[in-house]
Amino acid sequence: MDDIKLIEKCLDWNLNYFWEIYDKYVDKIYNFVYFKTTNKEVAEDIVSDVFISALNNINSFRIQEGSSVKSWLYKIAYNKIIDFYRTNKEFEEIWDYLDMSINSDFAQDLDNKDKLKEVFWYLKNIKKEHRDIVVYRIWDDLSYKEISEITWMSVDNCKKIVSRTLKTISANFVILILILLIL
Questions:
Q1: What percent of the chain has pLDDT over 70?
Q2: d(CA 110, CA 100)
Q3: 82, 130, 146, 159: most buried, per Cβ within 10 A?
C-alpha cells in the first residue's frame, strides 16, 4: 500500500496502518537524525519524538497531489533536531560527539570515525543550508522535490547547490563519501 493510502487509513482512525509507515521510514529517519547529532541515545530519543509527533499530528498531513509522507517525516525530524539543539546547549558542537557502537569492531570504528571526521570537517566548513541539502541528497537519498519541500527552496536551486558544492569537493572527498555510503 502506498504512503498516501496508509495516511488515509490512519485518518479514518485505523491507526494500526501507522506501523507500516513507521517500519518503512524509521531507519531512514534514524540515520538522518544520527548524522545531525552523532549520538546514539539522542538520535533514538529524537526519532521516538518524531514518530509520536507524526502520529499525534496525523490530521495535519495534507493529502494533495505530490504530497510526500517521507518529506513530512523529514521535516518533523528536522524541526525536532532544531528543538533539541535549542534546549541542549552542551551539544552545540556535534562534531565532538562521535560515539562508538559497543557491538562493533573497535579498529574498524576508529578507521570509520577518522574518515567520518574528514567528511564532517568539510561539511562543517560550508554554508549550513548547502550542507543540509547535500546531506539530504547524498546521505538520505532524497529526491530534489523532497528536499525542496523540506527546505522551502526551489527544485532548481537545490540542484544547483548540490552540483556546485560537489564540484568544490576534491576527488578524495567524493571517494570518501562514496565509501562511507557503502559502509
A1: 68
A2: 8
A3: 146
